[in-house]
Write a structure and sequence with these properties.
With 221 residues, the protein is of the alpha/beta class. The chain is built from eight helices and five strands, in the order H-E-H-H-E-H-E-H-E-H-H-E-H.
Amino acid sequence: MAAAAFLGASRCAESSESDRSVHSPGAAVSERVLCFGDSITRGEALPPGEGSSLWLLTVERRSNGRLRLINEGKNGRSTDSLKGLREALDRHAGEFDSVLIALGANDAHDFSPHAVSRAKARLEALIDAAREASPRRRVIVVGPPNVNVEALSRTMAHASEIARRLPEIDAAFETEAKESGSPYVRLYGLLPDRTLARDGIHPDARGNDVIAEAVLRALLE
């Protein structure tokens, strides 16, 4: 599929490890957050040498030791990933306090009539799974960001359709977050086109900084 399968396989920003973190052992941590997301969480499209600008790492640095983020991003991941979440929860059992779900961008590839409602239902299942072992566990939902349609259209025939679907998914995810009592972080509309110039999808260092600020505010509330 073009454009790296829309948040799909391309080079990873830093290492092949999924749980990259800049937290220093021994520092006081008030919250450990398992971040379950797609390639924007994993760190796609950041040039060599700029991997440290990944939004998760920026959140950790700016939290002054209060937060530790575990990176469970995967290229091409959509909300149809309940099995993957359960595996991540088991893999990091005892290592996290909260779960952050940052998905939705890949769901915009589904143009079928019930795609948005289906994505919302899948998000509900993911939130429920995150709370199975601990019903009071905090689950934060991060919605999909906007795209740069001009840049995306260079490699994708359906760029305009994807751009139109994203705000619908954003609205559905916000509704689901409210219904489940989860904080919602809206990214749609926050990223300037210039931060998505490379492929229309993956934010550069400046875009990652925008995401970091939005997520940090939510995590520290």
